[in-house]
Amino acid sequence: MDHPIKRDHARFRKIVKGRIRDNLRKYVSQGEMPIPKGNKEFRVPMPSIDTPRFKFGDQKQGGAGQGEGQAGDPVDGQDGEPGQGEVGSGEGNKELEVELSLEELASILGEELELPRIEPKGKKAMQKTTDKYTSIGTVGPDSLRHVKRTYKEALKRQLASGVYNPDNPVIVPVKSDFRYRSADAKIEFENSAVVIYMMDVSGSMGDEQKEIVRTESFWINLWLKSQYKDIEVRYIIHDATAKEVDEETFFRTRESGGTLISSAFKLCREIMQADYNSSEWNIYPFHFSDGDNWSTDDTKLCLDILDQDIIPNSNVFCYGQVESRYGSGQFYKDLHTKYGERSDNVILSKIKNKDAILDSIKDFLGKGK
Questions:
Q1: pTM assigned to the model
Q2: What is the DSSP string of 120-167?
C-alpha cells in the first residue's frame, strides 16, 4: 500500500502538469522556456498553486478573533498610528519553480498538440552490444567473483566430505568452489537522430525572428529527445555564404549582406554526406528564413539540392517562414508550388508571430515522421 505522502505527492505533480499544460501556449508565446538542470531534468516557472489552509468562519458565529471593538481600534494598547509608506494595490509575485523530467515535459507537449509517436525511417538504427550478467560460471576474473555462491559451494563440499564442524563453522573456499558472474552478450538497436538547423541571418531577420526560431527549436529538440535514444544538433547560419556555428552563435549572429539560400543547403548536404549515413541515422533538416532569396536561379538550385540530396536522405525536410516586415515571403511560395502543403517528405509552415509557434511545431511534428 502506498504511503499517504507518496499519494499526495503524485496528486500534486498531476495538478502541476495540468497547470503547465493549461499555460503552455502562454509560456511558448512569451518565450519562457524550461531551464535545463542536467540529468534530463528541467525547472519550469509557473504561477503558485493555492494549497489548503485554515479559514475563519462567519463573524456572526463567533469564534477566534471576535469580540468588542471597532475597525481601526488599537490592538493591545498600541497607539494605532499608521505605519510608513503607502499601501500597494498590485498582487505580489507568486511564481514558483517546479522540476519536471524530459519525459514529463514531452508528454505535456505531446498531449497539448496531439503529437503521434515518431516512426523511425527505414533501417535507421544503430547497433549496440551490451553485456547482461545473468548467469554463473566456474571461471572469471576476481572482480566478478560471486561471494555468496562461492560460500555455498564451499559449504556443500565440506558437508559432503564430512569435515564441516557446526561447533567451529569455518568455511574456507578452495579454487574449485569459486563461482563468477557470467555475461551474455545482447545486441540491441538504438535509434539515433540528427537535427540540422539552418537560418538566414541577413539584415531582414531581426531579433524577434531569431527569438521565434530559438523558442521553436527548443521544443522541437525536446520532443525529438523523447523519441530517440540520442540526438545530435548541428547549426548553420547563412546570408550570401554559409558556415557551421555553435548554438550561441547561431542565435546571436546578424549580418547585413544579401541572401543565397543555396549556400546553406550545400553545407547541409556536405554535413549529411560526411557524417550521417542515411541508413543509420534519422535526419531532420530545418530551414528558417523570412522568404527572401537572391534570385530565381538560386531558388532553382535550392530545389535541385533538395530533390537530389536532402529530401531522399531525410525523414522529413521542414521549412519555417518567419514573418518580417522586410521579407517578401517568396521562397515559401516557390516551395509550395513545387511540393504543395501535403507532401509526405516536405513540411512548410508560416510563423506569423510568437503566438503561432505551437501551431508551427504541430505542423512539423504532427505527421510522426
A1: 0.66
A2: --TT--EEEEEEEEEEEES---GGGB-HHHHHHHHHHHHHHHT---TT
